[in-house]
Amino acid sequence: MCKIMVSACLAGIKCKYNGGHNFIPAIASLVKEGKAIPVCPESLGNLPIPRPPAEIENGNGYEVLEGKTRVINNQGQDVTNAFCEGAKATLSKALKIKPKIIILKEKSPSCGSKFIYNGKFNNTIKPGQGVTTALLRKHGFKVISEKDFERGYPLE
What we know:
By secondary structure, the protein is an alpha/beta fold. The protein has one domain (4-150). It is 31% helix and 19% strand. The protein has helices at 25-32, 41-44, 61-65, 80-97, 131-138, 146-150; strands at residues 4-7, 36-39, 54-57, 70-73, 101-104, 115-117, 125-127, 143-145. The chain has a 4-stranded parallel beta sheet, with helices on both faces. Helix 4 crosses helix 5. The model has no long low-confidence stretch (mean pLDDT 96).
């Protein structure tokens, strides 16, 4: 069974908010070789592709899960529920697969592990975690970014 989960966009799957991907050849190879399974929390939360970009307003993924803040898109719509549902669906997959490590897309309001956008849609990042990363970490999963992976983070 796969012992790694990865953001689907990193494997070249076109699920990014703008309909694109964030292809990293080495991550795509892990999926192709059956060593990793791709997931897209936002797709699992039934958000369309493409969709308006979204950011966490005044907080981080932990605070979204606690109901202290929300995820909004650049049109002002509250998409918190979709992000939380996607995080829960990703957690459900992780509980079945039991990955040793999960590689998720940095800066994403779902997947960011160290940094997320600041919620003002001005292309500024701040320290923080996305909703899915926060939920996975609350359940003891090791989540790293694609940057950690590219720097040679051990997958074992």
